[in-house]
């Protein structure tokens, strides 16, 4: 299997983006890149650039969404790691062939002009893992 291209971002689940924004800008010195709503996933996301790393704050827009349930169960904190791949459909097929469990068996629209698919944490040592590919490439 071809290596991933890079780390895209680290996803952090929060109850409210506004209540966390100052920490990522003022304390960590991150550059705020904007807020985007992803209706299909029932989230608002805010991106911050900190050095070579991007942080994605995720806020649920629906109390019944998977993110809202995650926060209710585990509280705010690390939600996922996201990696850029060349061919998302091919990567999904490869992962399924080796016996890992995909949450998404076909790519879906994500934030930041990316198509995304998640690998179940049970297949990744307990870490929810997002694979993403730019829609503009």
TrEMBL record:
CDD domains reported for this sequence: MMCE
Residues annotated as domain VOC: 6-134
Keyword Manganese: no
Organism placement in taxonomy: Bacteria, Pseudomonadati, Planctomycetota, Planctomycetia, Pirellulales
Pfam families: Glyoxalase_4
The entry's keywords: Metal-binding
Family under the similarity heading: Belongs to the methylmalonyl-CoA epimerase family.
Metal-binding is among the record's keywords: yes
InterPro entries: Glyas_Bleomycin-R_OHBP_Dase (IPR029068), MeMalonyl-CoA_epimerase (IPR017515), MMCE/EMCE_epimerase (IPR051785), VOC_core (IPR037523)
Name assigned to this protein: Ethylmalonyl-CoA/methylmalonyl-CoA epimerase
